[in-house]
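Chain entry —
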Amino acid sequence: MDLPHKPASCGLFTACIVAARAPWLYDCDHMADSAEKRLPERLRKLLPLEIQAQCASSPCARGELLFRQGKKPAQMLYVTRGEVVLQRLGRQGAIVVLQRTRRGFIGEASLDSVRYHCDAVVTMSGEVVAIPIDAVKQALAADSGFAGRWIAMLNQEVKRLRAQCERLSLKGVKERLLHLIETEGSEGRLPLGGGLQSMASELGVTHEALYRAVAELEKKGALRRRENFLVVVGGA
């Protein structure tokens, strides 16, 4: 694609190229302010400045498909607001939710993959940051400090996945739900995000079973729904 010439810093021009290749990102006029100033603190601490300059933020709407299974990876995403899930069809034709992210990375596992292994679907409107994969790969090879920070980030993701495996080993729906709130929530509060149906897929249960579990916990006074949150009450 031939881009029109316009005065720009090297980092801004590169960000415009990234935006041109991904239509759902901000256009180049939105990049007038330096991209790195808009990034969340976690990304500013993690990413080298040259990568920060190539990142592009974009609003995302519920139901939007951010990337599709089987496509060649061009960027990984960081969810700053809202909720995005990674999902794909299971062997029996039902949708399986592999990951549900409200503030964190999506697609980082595709860094060395030739294709995305699942779909990224927005379940609650918000905002995402697109990070070019090629730039990350080059920086990891050349910058040992960044490589160390990246490994530490992946270690945290491994811990999260271990907690997920522990949760799925629990037999009861209530136990899985309370474990999810404990490990993924904050101070006993968990955002509902895409709703109970999306949460049921993450817990590996039917949405009917989850609705019943929530109703029973509410009846016992152990759980409350407040606005878009599930809140554990007392020592449930």
